[in-house]
Design goal:
- Six copies of one chain form a homohexamer.
- The first copy, chain A, has 253 residues and is an alpha/beta fold.
- Chain A has eight helices and nine strands.
- Chain A has helices at residues 11-14, 35-50, 63-71, 77-82, 93-101, 106-114, 134-150, 242-251; strands at residues 24-29, 54-58, 86-90, 118-122, 154-160, 181-190, 193-203, 213-218, 221-227.
- Chain A has a nine-stranded mixed sheet with strand order 3-2-4-5-1-6-7-8-9, sandwiched between helices.
- The radius of gyration of chain A is 19 Å and the shape is globular.
- Chain A starts with 10 loop residues before the first helix and ends with a helix.
- Chains E and F meet through β7 and α8 of E and β7, β8 and α8 of F.
Chain lengths: 253, 253, 253, 253, 253, 253
């Protein structure tokens, strides 16, 4: 099947080529792990390398923030916007929801105006204030995501995790069940420093790579590297390397 | 006793031949572990290999999603539906419940129309929005499941777990007490990658295999492999292999 | 003191001969651990080996379920019921409670009709829906249990645990304080498989065996085996065997 | 200072001779750890060995239960009651509280009638239903305990712990702050069996023994033995003995 | 800077000489760790060694309790009270609060009457019943403490911890942020016994000793000893000594 | 890009030169970790070394507290205030919020009066009492921070953590998502003493140093030292050094 490439070195390979067309893709991580950067890189690659215009839909950060952040990776979002290939929209979750529900709303209009094929929703966590509980939130998010997919979009959704290391116990909203792929960005403490790990946990209808990869945010955006080696419990954020050192000490020595 | 085979390589063996006829079988797992795939494979095998028509009952994903996903495993659900051997129904939990309670409801009619013997309910978690608390949910689910069993169906019910690794502390709904078998799908971090484990925890009236097996989702669906070896704490999702390496280092060396 | 034998190989020995006469005995376990089987075996042994008629009191599963399950262990409950030695009653907790409170209620009448000396209440957890909180539940259960004891019955009460491995943090209802014995059924992960452990934690007025025993559900019911060996932390469900392997590696080698 | 001996072998030594006169002494433990037995032994020793009449104040178990349990340790409570040296009273927490607040209430009258110097309150946990929250419970318990101390009584109070192994996270009622001594009874898993540990955590104005001791309930009541050896983490209920085995393996071998 | 000495051997050294003048100093600990003893010793030392009269302000225990407890350490509080150097006041938190808010209240009058320079507030935890939530409690405590500091007092505040081992998860009242020093008293299980540890976690404007010290309550009050050695995780209450034994076993042997 | 130097030895290097101009920078830590000291040092360095006037905005501690604390590090805040280079303001969160929302409010006026370029908000945690829930708090804090950035300020915000060791489970307010940098101050138990660790977890648009550094509060303020060595799990507050000692014992020995 044809894939929607993100252009992120190493990430497309993990995904088996890229996202599925017209799919919803959830990226979850703690503050500073690079969720927005990953999303912007996906949008930038669409415009710059695939001729696919894109939309960035945000609920808190101003468009200027995205222009500035993108520029630090060498992505000229202002120019792209001038050229009619990008729209950065900031609105409230209430408005976006209402907007997508009616025919010819503002987002629909923008999508059609620039012929957008990709969209970054940054972040889905803001929908929480629309919903009274987890069941309602799921239903809301489901409707929103589906209306975007119906427009033919490939969607990247970010979700905020309030836990710095390991699994977020507070995120029991079940959003991961309604998306087509689910990627975790995690902090991992190794050798007295904090490194970053990426894992594609779920990928619908596809036998993807399940390795836990190290990644970095460089001056050109995200780069996904080799798997971690000789460690247990990476997903806990605080891995153990006993075995490795045991081996070194006893077996190979 | 005669068994209802799932056709999943390795899984029927664990179950002691298959599910019990007219039984309710719970499959629980985190997003991406393969609950729906397991259920579709059960339905497909019934139609393709056993001559037993089937129903897929969903509350969120559209029928198209199932057609597409099934096709990626080589299962032509559209054709089966045309041939009157399959029905994929999407409705709200409210409607299904009401429907099964009255004589000659829509689901009952469909079951009889195609002579269905198998049903996948994907997922039981959606009933949560009908119930005010765990006690009520249990009673609701009990009524729903029993009315299906009374129709002569063998039922596969999926349940969503919001925890990625280890046991889900939020699932205290006691649903596992009212089913005839209970299977866990779990993520396990091994060697810097995420693998999948399957365990038949409960099987009514039967001395089944209690091994924790590795499984994969391949291009032909789920395949259950050998047990994990030389690891403690697999069900925690983050197993230890100290002993193993100790043995290697000290005893056999 | 004379004891009420359960007929379960190994269990009566742990109990110091059996339950105390006219005692309340709590059996707690996760789904599939064998609580109902243990209770049915206690009832069956009373009728078949001791000439003591019995009652099975259930709130959810239909009598047919018990007949079928019992038969898989070779216990013909239908025949026993026909011979007036057994009654299987399904009712709501509300009705049972009200019933026992008045003179000559249905349960009292049944007990006297067949001269029942043993009763299985499967499960006490259903009383939760009668009670607004833990204090009320305790008071309700206390009244119910005492009225059964006053009728001269030896009572087996099952309680459901929603936690699969280790201690159930949700069970703070204090029911264990008002019974005469308290037995835990637990899952234990050993060697990549799930085994079952049984422990008599409490036994009023008696110096019972406090070993944590492995047990199996065979074609003839429950059989309690030898204690686990060379493992720490069995009650956590995920034991460690480091010491053992250390010993093997260093000391005996 | 003169001490009020409990007569429990090993326990008086831990306490530095016994409880302080006119003190409140809290005994906390999970079901089956022996709280009531310890309390009854304290009452029995007072009557049989010290000439100090006693009162047993209970809120749930019937007096008959205490007579029977005591008898299994060879303590003839019925005879003591006939001889005017013991009273076993069952009442509601509401009544006891009200009773002690007015002059010449029933408990006060009983205390004076038999000249009681010791009282067992079994258990303080029943006061929870009188109090809306932890602050109120503390105030209630404080008033109740002080009115008993003002009558010149040495008080043993039991408290139920709902956690089987390790610390009870639910007990944040702060009752331990208002008593003069605080003793923990704990289950400890060692060598595939459950043993019992006793620890005097707090003892007002006294340099008591802080060892964690093994104890047993024998045919003559509680006997406190030697401390556990070569284990870390006993209070967790699941101790580790790594060091010990390391030492054995490496150093002494 | 001049310091207010506590007279507790080893503790003044940790503090860098003593508390800061006119400072608020929080002492936190589980029942029986010695919070009140530490506070009384601070008051006694002020009167007996520094000529600084003191006030003990309590909300639950009667003054008699303090006289008796102090006497067990050889501190004659009754005499000091007679000599006009000490006041022991028991009142409700409501009254104290109101009292300090108006000019010439009872506490202010007492302070001036005896020229008090030190005060023990035992314990701040009782203010919890005045406050609806953590934010309000903080504001209340802040006002109370500041009005005492404005009177020129050096304040010792005790706070109760409901957790026996390790950190108290329930204490999220943020009181530690508004004091000038913060000292933890902790239980630590070592060699099958419970020892006591003291740590000065926070000390405003000062480079104090951050060692975790063992301490004892002797017949003369608290004595702070050397740091614990060769153990990790002391603050958890259940330390590990693996490294130490590893070292002994491998390196030095 | 030009950076706003904090003047804290070692910290500017971690940040890649300093904070970003007109950025919001969150400093989180438990009581006594040095949040306020870090903030004051940032303000002092701006005035003394960069000619950038500054504002200290507090909600609880009186200005006098800051003068005194600063003086203990040799920073003469009173003089700076007299010279019109510093303002220390204490107000309620309500007032500050309202103040910044209108044109020409008090804070705006002060900023312009002294030409302030840096501000310390100590602490953001006080905004919690303005907000009914986490979503509202985020929105409030977002508005407040943005209005300060719009005035051209570089902002340091402190946040209180109620957990002494490891991650604070109570802080799920998501504030870390709306700032440009996020620095953690943590306690770490090493060798029976409590040390301090600093980590820059997030730094917008920048490849900063992710090492976990030891730091001290000296007589001249904060000094950031070398990373911790040979330890796993520093962020848990209770690190393990097994590997290290294993290496020493086995490999190098």
């Amino acid at each position: 099947m044809e894939r929607v490439r993100t252009g992120i070195p190493g990430f497309d390979e993990l995904l088996g080529g890229g996202f599925l067309p017209q799919s919803a893709n959830l990226i979850e991580g703690a503050p500073g792990t690079g969720k927005s950067t990953l999303g912007m890189q996906f949008i930038h690659h669409g415009i710059a390398a695939c001729g696919e215009p894109g939309l960035i839909h945000t609920f808190e950060a101003l468009p200027e923030q995205y222009y500035r952040d993108a520029l630090s990776y060498g992505w000229d979002f202002r120019r792209m916007e001038r050229e009619g290939k990008l729209r950065v929209v900031m609105t409230s979750p209430e408005v976006s929801k209402a907007d997508l529900e009616k025919v010819g709303g503002r987002i629909e209009r923008m999508i059609r105006e620039i012929g957008a094929q990709r969209i970054l929703v940054d972040s889905l966590s803001h929908f929480e204030r629309l919903a009274g509980n987890a069941v309602e939130l799921r239903s809301l998010a489901y409707g929103f995501v589906n209306s975007l997919k119906r427009e033919g979009m490939t969607v990247v959704l970010t979700r905020e995790s309030s836990t710095l290391l390991g699994e977020d116990d507070n995120n029991n909203d079940m959003l991961a069940f309604l998306v087509d792929s689910y990627t975790l960005l995690r902090y991992v403490e190794i050798d007295s420093a904090v490194q970053k790990a990426l894992l594609v946990l779920k990928m619908r209808g596809s036998n993807h790579d399940k390795g836990i990869r190290q990644f970095e945010i460089t001056g050109r955006g995200i780069e996904v590297h080799a798997p971690f080696e000789g460690r247990d419990g990476i997903l806990s954020g605080s891995p153990r390397r006993m075995i490795d050192s045991f081996r070194q000490a006893f077996v190979r020595h």
